[in-house]
Design goal:
Chains: A alpha/beta, B mainly alpha, C mainly alpha
Distance between the termini of chain A: 73 Å
Structural class of chain B: mainly alpha
CATH topology of the largest domain in chain A: Rossmann fold
Number of helices of chain B: 12
Largest interface: A-C, 70 and 88 residues
Largest sheet of chain A: 7 strands, mixed
Oligomer: heterotrimer
Number of domains of chain A: 2
Order of helices and strands of chain B: HHHHEEEHHHHEHHHH
Number of helices of chain A: 13
Shape of chain B: globular
Shape of chain A: globular
Number of strands of chain A: 15
Strand content of chain B: under 5%
CATH class of the largest domain in chain A: Alpha Beta
Structural class of chain A: alpha/beta
Strand order of the largest sheet of chain B: 1-4
Chain lengths: 414, 313, 403
């Protein structure tokens, strides 16, 4: 009798085991598996037996960061369209992008990461959203794969992980820039900080902002909202009751749209301030509709590399699906530019590693540490001892409500 | 601090609380009516409400508003009717747990469908002329819909109570709620009564979704989950089966929730100064609803206005 | 002990082969290998199986429709993470609370320093059991008010408690203890289960997770077949009759609730090991619903069913149906209907879960008994053997019976 359970368990597990084998080919090795990139994979120079360099694009396409993830992916896919091949160690390779949707979720992220690794990628780019990058970083490290964060700004992404690098600036820096903007430019004494409960990006950036803002003599009132909050009117009333001179809300662009809307309805003239995630068409739309003053820091300001801007827009507008992934407009977000540079620096790393297909992961990682590459859009990339790019510039932009567009405000250096 | 200052401090929260509470009330009525007849917690009701928002996003992009609004209301009513026919009716003789699981399955399906059709991104709800406009009430800036909601809710509730008390179908509903099997024996067409219940519930959810999403204009797959649960709690609080109870429960939960959200500011150092550092009370604004639920279920399981439940052996 | 039947002895042999196979397979499948998804799914599947069986103990065997699963999992996962995180890592994990973290003991670290490698494993086991105990203790408190309620009120009240638990764990005031909802990470994880002998690393992750789950499921199985199990089933069938038979309703409900929660806590701890991160944001009602659907898929009141359901759920949603999201699925993507290419237009992000939920709805509506009804595997083994005897064919593939 007591053995029943053993039998039950065994056979159940065996059944699934047996059922696995025929199902394996369902996930194909062939290219063009990435939906948003449809049509690009078969770009020029597809002469048969060229070895492949597979870049794993670990980005959210759904969930709270879905919109941003799609925009960031666009940059990388565009880079792949412009430069579909690369010569490594004297051999031409075709570069293929393999995408998995991590659903902006720290639960589904690691499984999606494992899926990406199992698809045989050689390097990882992503993810938009620090929390999911942190949650999945060990999967890549365990597989011995190098991962390059594109716009995940939380310091913990690369801390204690020799396999994770990143090309963007970090939150301690961004927080400093934002705090000095709040204090010096917006002349605020009290900052109302509104963060998403349990989100690494939100809490982290708020933490660094608070540190700096307090050292500049300001007062910070921080409140958290739970995920899935629709009603921000109470928080806006709180900000007004607290006599805040600035509302700092490091949140996803999705929440941003609701926060801005609530601010507009509450009729407040307190300016809203946020970090890189707010560099999004949703934020622009909401701000224009509500007439609220919004100021953000970002990685790249449109116009910084005019030729690239033009080429990207031409490519973007040629395909309605791509345009939809950019939020329906052809405004260039900072992280799209970073996605492009991340792709280019990846090719540079493989070239310097110099080992052709099937590549040497140790050489790749060694080459990554020694990167000194001038990103075509957002500038020089060199990694420090944590694997973070040394960035000293953040671009500040504001919403011009009359013209319905982002307006360049300043390039902040510290 | 004088009475006027107190009013100034708390009024914005109470105003938006009444508004969101009214919207909970409209959803709660649907829960309450279905539960009183079928003893089913219709977990999918909150998602029907969300789908109402989503339909409007797509409808308003294609049709003018005077077509879009009736169309969406009609589609939601149809959806509620279909869900009952497809997912609940075949299980009428099954154990109660099976029906509840079916409801959870429908909720799961609706959320996944929404995820698929929105591409997992927030969709912005269209702004309606007039009711979306910003107005000022006693110096507090808000949307006109905030002020309209309570009046609309009261009007709808009066209509509904009249319907239930004076029409044939209303009497049939009350009979079915009192004793399902006997009502059936007395010749009441139980299936059409249940369908009517779902139609009324969905209609109110559709109206509720228009009001809710006009105020908080982002529709996402999980947008209905929390308001749905809170509305159910409101229904339990007011006494399941009681329509005025659902309304009072909804309003109370809405007000308390917004007041708690502001408690750190209104009671803390920047307000009344009852405590001198932030306690992060706002984080409990959702959980509070459930604390209330447990308290009600322990001390007064029939809610404020509910009938005594009859335990059938 | 009774003499083993032929079927049972074969099954035990098969069990041993299975566990040997998990060990062998893991040595040959690299993480970058396509077949690694098999291992990943087996790991997650075994944990989900335990969690589903624990839920089945409550919902299926005792008839208590509880929806507090996610909350209890969160307690288990958090407890495990807090008591197994190396001290050196805590200042990074608790960054936003500037090193004021309260819990300053890590069992795997303490015992690992004392006894070396095996000590660490013992430390992990202690943390896992502690996770179960803490969860059971919370369940006891929750059970006091909740278990006296009627069936559907019980469902909504437990659902409410899961939300309350999450809100408390995410409360800033408890930040130094729980990290206030910010993800916990860097605790002992899957890679720590590998054994290094003489410079050679042996992967034991899949084996360990599957084995731990199997042990727990076996204990639940013993319970269900004991006199307590019969009392639980009596309560499920008719509370009033059960009470008349002399079964102390509340005591037995509380017992079932606490034991179930203990294993939910253990399952949560294993899930934490598997995921490497504990983010309270993810432990929402939707997670509970998923386990409920697994239980329904397998058959309410069947342990075999819950295991099969969990495996199918994980393999289908994590692996087999993934192609539905990314444009390629069994060649169906090349079909074009009304000028709409399935691969490009229909098989995009999210379609997998739509197909999946439709399948689940079909099972809920048309196969109300699930895959296994309330029968356990030996029933099907015997049926299969009868079938073989009747057709007198040489042995077909084992397990084809109810897949």
């Amino acid at each position: 009798m007591k053995k029943k359970m053993f039998i039950a368990l065994t056979l159940a597990l065996l059944m699934t085991l047996a059922a696995c084998a025929p199902a394996a080919p369902a996930t194909p090795a062939a290219p063009a598996a990435d939906a948003p990139a449809a049509g690009d994979a078969a770009a020029p120079a597809a002469d048969g037996d060229m070895p492949e360099l597979v870049i794993g694009l670990f980005q959210p396409a759904t969930g709270a960061n879905g919109a941003g993830g799609r925009q960031e992916s666009l940059g990388t896919i565009f880079a792949n369209y412009r430069q579909p091949t690369v010569e490594i160690g004297g051999v031409m390779h075709r570069v293929r992008i393999e995408q998995v949707d991590n659903q902006s979720s720290t639960t589904h992220g690691p499984a999606a990461a494992a899926e990406l690794v199992a698809r045989g990628v050689h390097i990882i780019l992503g993810s938009y959203g620090s929390a999911v990058s942190i949650a999945s970083s060990d999967v890549f490290a365990d597989a011995g794969l190098t991962a390059i964060g594109v716009s995940c700004t939380n310091p913990n992404v690369t801390r204690g992980n020799d396999f994770y690098f990143r090309v963007c600036f970090l939150d301690p820096f961004q927080g400093q820039v934002l705090a000095s903007l709040a204090s010096n430019t917006l002349n605020a004494d009290t900052a109302y900080v509104l963060t998403l409960l349990g989100d690494d990006y939100s809490q982290g950036l708020a933490h660094f902002f608070t540190e700096q803002f307090q050292s500049l003599g300001g007062t910070v009132i921080q409140e958290n909202f739970p995920e899935g909050t629709s009603d921000f009117s109470g928080f806006m009333t709180n900000a007004m009751n607290a006599g805040a001179g600035v509302i700092f809300a490091p949140t996803s662009a999705e929440a941003a749209a609701l926060i801005i809307d609530s601010a507009g309805v509450a009729g407040t003239d307190i300016p809203l301030l946020a970090g890189d995630t707010w560099d999004s068409p949703q934020v622009l739309d909401a701000a224009v509709r509500s007439g609220v003053s919004v100021m953000v820091t970002t990685f790249y300001q449109e116009g910084g590399a005019p030729e690239w801007d033009a080429a990207f827009k031409e490519w973007l507008n040629a395909n309605p699906a791509q345009l939809a992934n950019n939020g329906g407009s052809d405004v260039i977000a900072g992280f799209t530019a970073m996605g492009y540079d991340a792709y280019m620096v990846t090719l540079d790393i493989f070239q310097r590693a110099g080992v052709p297909y099937p590549f040497d992961q140790d050489a790749i990682r060694a080459a990554t540490w020694e990167t000194s590459f001038y990103g075509p859009v957002a500038g020089l990339i060199e990694f420090d001892e944590h694997g973070d790019a040394r960035r000293d510039t953040a671009f500040v932009k504001t919403v011009n409500v009359e013209e319905g567009a982002w307006e360049f405000y300043a390039a902040q250096r510290l | 601090m004088g009475a006027y200052d107190l009013f100034r401090l708390f009024f914005p929260y109470i105003l938006s609380g009444i508004s969101i509470g009214g919207q909970y009330a409209l959803i709660a009525i649907g829960y309450s009516m279905v539960y009183s007849i079928l003893r089913l917690i219709n977990f999918a009701h909150g998602d029907v409400f969300m789908v109402g928002g989503l339909f409007m996003v797509f409808a308003a992009a294609t049709f003018p508003l005077w077509v879009a609004i009736p169309l969406v209301v009609f589609l939601i009513v149809l959806l509620g009717f279909t869900i009952e026919r497809v997912a609940y009716k075949p299980l009428r003789t099954a154990p109660r747990m099976s029906v509840m699981i079916s409801a959870i399955g429908v909720s799961y399906l609706l959320q996944n469908l929404a995820l698929y059709f929105t591409g997992g991104l927030n969709r912005m709800y269209p702004a309606f002329p007039w009711i979306s406009d910003t107005i000022s009430v006693f110096g507090v800036s808000t949307r006109r819909v905030t002020v309209i909601t309570p009046f609309l809710v009261v009007a709808l509730v009066f209509a509904l109570v009249w319907l239930i008390n004076n029409t044939k179908v209303g009497i049939a509903m009350r009979a079915a709620a009192k004793d399902f099997d006997t009502a059936q024996l007395m010749g009441i067409k139980i299936n059409s009564v249940i369908s009517t219940t779902f139609i009324i519930g969905s209609f109110l959810a559709a109206i509720g979704s228009i009001l809710f999403f006009t105020n908080f204009p982002a529709v996402f797959p999980a947008a209905g989950a929390m308001p749905g649960l809170k509305a159910f709690v409101a229904a339990v609080f007011g006494g399941i089966g009681s329509i005025p109870g659902a309304v009072i429960g909804g309003l109370l939960i809405g007000i308390v929730e917004t007041v708690i959200r502001g408690a750190d500011i209104t009671l803390g150092p920047t307000g009344l100064g009852l405590f001198n550092r932030s306690l992060d009370i706002a984080a409990f604004s959702d959980a509070f609803t459930f604390v209330l639920l447990v308290i009600v279920l322990v001390f007064r399981p029939t809610g404020l206005f509910g009938d005594k439940p009859t335990d059938k052996v | 002990m009774k003499k083993l039947s032929v079927g049972n002895s074969i099954s035990i042999l098969v069990l041993i082969i299975f566990f040997v196979l998990t060990i062998v397979l893991e040595q040959f499948i690299a993480p970058t290998d396509r077949m690694n998804m098999l291992l990943v799914c087996l790991r997650q599947g075994s944990i989900f199986a335990l969690l589903a069986v624990a839920m089945n103990l409550l919902n299926g065997f005792t008839g208590l429709f509880s929806l507090g699963h996610a909350g209890f999992m969160l307690i288990g996962a958090t407890t495990y993470a807090l008591f197994s995180m190396p001290l050196a890592e805590r200042s990074i994990v608790f960054t936003w609370f500037s090193d004021s973290y309260v819990i300053r003991i890590s069992f795997p670290e303490v015992l690992g320093n004392l006894l070396g490698g095996p000590g660490m494993i013992i430390g992990m086991l202690i943390s896992i059991i502690l996770a179960g105990l803490v969860t059971a203790a919370f369940a006891f408190l929750v059970g006091l008010p909740v278990l006296r309620m009627r069936s559907d009120y019980l469902a909504i009240a437990t659902l409410g408690f899961a939300e309350i638990i999450r809100a408390i764990i995410m409360w800033q005031g408890l930040g130094p203890v729980t990290n206030a909802g910010n993800p916990l990470r860097s605790f002992t994880r899957t890679a720590d289960l590998n054994v290094t002998i003489g410079g050679q690393t042996f992967g034991l992750i899949t084996f360990t997770l599957a084995f731990l789950s199997a042990v727990c499921i076996f204990i639940i199985f013993l319970l269900v077949t004991s006199s307590y199990g019969r009392a639980f089933k009596a309560i499920r069938e008719d509370e009033i009759a059960a009470e008349a038979m002399g079964i102390n309703l509340f005591k037995h409900k509380q017992l079932s609730f606490c034991i179930s929660s203990f294993f939910v806590g253990v399952g949560g701890a294993l899930l934490a090991i598997f995921m490497g991160t504990v983010a309270p944001l993810q432990f929402r009602a939707a997670m509970t619903y998923e386990f409920l659907l697994i239980v329904v898929l397998g058959g309410i009141g069947s342990i075999t069913g819950s295991i099969v359901g969990a495996m199918l759920f994980v393999f289908a949603s994590m692996w087999w149906l993934r192609g539905l999201d990314s444009g390629t699925f069994l060649g169906l993507d090349r079909i074009t209907i009304f000028g709409v290419n399935l691969g490009e237009r229909v098989f995009v992000s999210g379609f997998r879960m739509v197909v999946f939920s439709v399948i689940i709805m079909c099972i809920v509506l048309f196969f109300r008994r699930g895959l296994c009804g309330d029968k356990e595997l030996p029933y099907y083994v015997n049926k299969l053997r009868e079938l073989i005897a009747r057709k007198s064919k040489p042995k077909p593939e084992a397990g084809g019976a109810d897949a």
